[in-house]
Amino acid sequence: MNAVKVVDNIYWVGAIDWNVRDFHGYSTNRGTTYNAFVIMDEKITLVDTVKSSLKGDFLKRLKEIVDPEKIDYIVINHVELDHSGSLPEIVELIKPEKIICSKMGQKAMVEHFHQEDWPYEIVEPGKDICLGQKTLSFIETRMLHWPDSMFTYVKEDKLLFSSDAFGQHYATSERFDDEVDQAVLMEEMTKYYANILTLYSPKVKKLIETVKEIGLEIDMIVPDHGVIWRSNPGIALESYDKWSRNIGDGNALIIYDTMWHSTEKMAKEVGSGLQDEGISYKLLNLRYNHRSDVMREVLNASAIVLGCSTLNNGLLPRMAGFLMYMRGLRPTNKIGAAFGSFGWSGEAVKLLNQAMEEMNFDVVDPGYRVKYVPTDDDLHKCTELGRTVGKKLKES
Ligand code: FEO
To answer: Which of 139, 284, 299, 391 is 20 to 30 A from 95 in CA distance terms?
Structure first.
């Protein structure tokens, strides 16, 4: 239960949530952390808090560093309750001189906690707050991923408190990027971006451009979830740059659900067609792959081929739910195609195509439907569908 030194006079005092497995519909198979920090300076400053259920762990770590009643300021970079849930009790305990936040942060805190008279200090970009030896400046990151979101930068340490950005839902006893399995770290950062930030990619792109334009020097990126980018913040920035520009890796996904395996047989043949064209692909059955893991794959894929049987004149419910989830996240710059089996009405392929057109996917084929069980000829046509998608991918 130890606080951890991040740099001189800045300590991690957050909480590790080993048990959380669902984060508003996102499967957090490795748990998460809620990172909070204390800056020991002439003005002692707490940066963010934690989910209310883990307030005890947080306070225990905080007390290893400082008597909470001695804290002067609280910086709230983001009001979502995983970071602010314990704030009312912390404010009561600390009685801070200032709660430093964005304009939208103040509004969100009032709307969450109904405390008009807390000592809010609204910071605008360009306004610095000197704590003594360390100086804080602020970058408004509205809609990354809430209207209230902001980053806090410690000038002397070139350290960026990045709130949710560059985070990972990854519970670990280690606190730094160079202490954990790199493949797991990248997997969890990719999944986080795919499920939280894809919708806001244009804003991420603008943010990365702004960081470059103003020449912000970053030695350390300190997110509110997962490990701190101490050794390799560059890879976090490069990954966000790539994802925000919707650059696919040239590969395809076949995402499907099947009733009596006919659509599954079709899916395998679509894969054969892709392989014939030299395209790497993955088959993702929605029965066995959680929507948030599928979205992690969608982030880097260049083509999405959707397969579904028709049920009750519509889609199988897992596919319908997945499409609603994916539409909300709005991935762009994808080639699309569809296939599926049916018994009598057969609407699924049309509905899949409609959904992809609504997402501005480049639907490259009308799609292919099979009644009940595919014949050899049907399966050959599915291979052709895969080849068509593969050829388009090679041209693009
Ligand atoms: Fe980790 Fe948007 O809260």
So the answer is: 139
The candidate with the shortest Cα–Cα distance to 114, out of 136, 87, 137, 95, is 87
Beta-bridge mates of residue 376: none
Q: What's the 385 CA to ligand 1 centre distance in angstroms?
A: 41
Q: pTM score, two decimals?
A: 0.96
Fold of 4-244: Metallo-beta-lactamase; Chain A (3.60.15)
Domain ranges of the chain: 4-244, 252-395
Please identify, by atom number, the ligand 1 atom nearest to the C-alpha of residue 146. Answer: 2
Catalytic residues: 24, 78, 80, 82, 145, 164, 192, 225
Question: How confident is the model over 114-150, as pLDDT tens digits?
Answer: 999 999 999 988 889 999 999 999 999 999 889 999 9
How many angstroms is it from 264 CA to the middle of ligand 1? 37
Q: Considering only CA atoms, which residue is closest to atom 3 of ligand 1?
A: 80
Does residue 1 register a pLDDT over 70? no
Return the exposure string of 35-69: e unless at least 16 CB atoms fall within 10 Å of the residue's CB, then b. bbbbbbbebbbbbbbbbbebbebbbebbeebbebe
The protein residue with its alpha carbon nearest to ligand 1, atom 1, reads 164
Tell me, which fold does domain 252-395 have in CATH? Rossmann fold (3.40.50)
Q: What is the pLDDT of residues 146-161, one digit of tens each?
A: 999 999 999 999 999 9
